[in-house]
Design brief:
single chain; alpha+beta; Pnp Oxidase, Chain A; seven-stranded antiparallel beta sheet; three-stranded antiparallel beta sheet; about 40% strand; globular; binds flavin mononucleotide
Length: about 170
């Protein structure tokens, strides 16, 4: 198959569940900037590297490159609304509570965990850019379950152990 239909491509790839992560930084005026990605992943332990992919037309990528740093915020299962806002056109930080990370990136309130990075490398791949971050600080913020994206919709994570426990408690 040489040419692959875009809708078909997205449809099949949508069957691979992803975590929902808000990538944050600040602009030259210290204003918070960010976007939602489903492509955040760990890359290397030694040195500690992580990465995500961002569309070539991204409005946030220039801010990330200029700041030379970003924070990956793992959203919690109850933060679907926040995800929609952070993936939307405008006012992404309207009403959003956040505190600065050690590097100065926004750490959003109510998330599961965060990873604070310096930009190590930005590589153009196809119509996206792979942003590789050198991990400087990281922390588990809460015991909340993570927000997931699957087949075009949001969902909350539920472990098999929890399902079994629920069933037992339901007896
Ligand atoms: C669950 C989910 C996952 C997404 N994953 C990515 C991604 O990995 N890379 C990307 O560039 N955009 C991704 N998007 C789309 C961006 O969040 C959206 O296009 C945003 O408006 C881009 O903002 P920007 O122009 O400031 O970069 C995702 C959106 C959602 C809802």
């Amino acid at each position: 198959m040489d040419t692959i239909n875009g809708r078909y491509f997205r449809g099949v790839l949508g069957h691979f569940p992803t975590s929902v992560v808000a990538i944050t930084t600040t602009d030259a005026d210290e204003r918070p900037q960010g976007l939602v990605v489903g492509t955040f992943m760990s890359v290397s332990l030694d040195p500690p590297l992580v990465s995500f992919l961002v569309d070539g037309s991204s409005r946030t990528l220039p801010a990330i490159r200029a700041a030379g740093r970003f924070c990956a915020n793992a959203l919690a299962g109850n933060q679907e609304r926040l995800s929609r806002q952070m993936a939307s056109g405008t006012d992404r930080f309207d009403g959003v509570i956040w505190k600065p990370s050690p590097l100065g990136n926004p750490v959003l309130d109510g998330i599961v965990a965060w990873v604070d990075c310096g930009v190590e490398k930005v590589v153009e791949i196809g119509d996206h850019f792979l942003v590789v971050g050198r991990v400087r600080h990281l922390r588990v913020e809460s015991k909340r379950t993570p927000l997931l994206f699957f087949r075009g919709g949001y969902g909350d994570y539920l472990s098999t152990t929890n399902l079994v426990l629920d069933r037992l408690v339901g007896w």
